[in-house]
Structure formats: C-alpha cells, structure tokens
Amino acid sequence: MNYENQNFCQSCGMPMGDTDEWYGAEADGSKNTDYCKYCYENGAFTSNSTMDEMIEFCVQPMVEHTPGMTDQKAREMMQQFFPTLKRWKAQ
Length: 91
Description:
This protein has three helices and four strands. The strands form two sheets. A two-stranded antiparallel sheet has the order 1-2. It has a two-stranded antiparallel ribbon with strand order 3-4. The chain has helices at 51-65, 71-81, 86-89; strands spanning 23-25, 31-36, 40-41, 44-45.
C-alpha cells in the first residue's frame, strides 16, 4: 500500500483510504475528514483515552493487519507517529 498522500485518522493513525467510508461523523451527520468512524462519531470522540492508552489499544490491530509486525515494533512506531497527529499534538 502506498501511504504517500494518504489520509490518516488524526486520533488512531489508521489509513482512511481514498473514499469517505472510514470518516467519522459530525452531530449533523456530515463527514469529518480528520478522524475515523471508530474514533469519532456524532460530533465527539468515542473514547476519552490518553495517547498512551490509544497506542496500547491500537497495537493488536496493527500487528494483525501488518505482515511481520511485532507488538514492540508497532508500539515504537506509534510512539513516534502519534505525537504528530492533530488530537495528540497539544498534549
């Protein structure tokens, strides 16, 4: 998969692809292009987690969907990537 110019969820880092199917939703039903449907719905975040809690939650899905990925490598990558995401930059 080519990640160049890819839109990533600004909360969990999930690649959101070329369509709006993974986009979260505002309270009025419009799509939110910054956050995925798992992190953001009805105009609010679906969990009140910390960045570290989000990383721990995301380790297993990343390992399952990335051939050759280990828990440790996934955690290390997210610890570097997540601070650049919109939701976590201010923390």
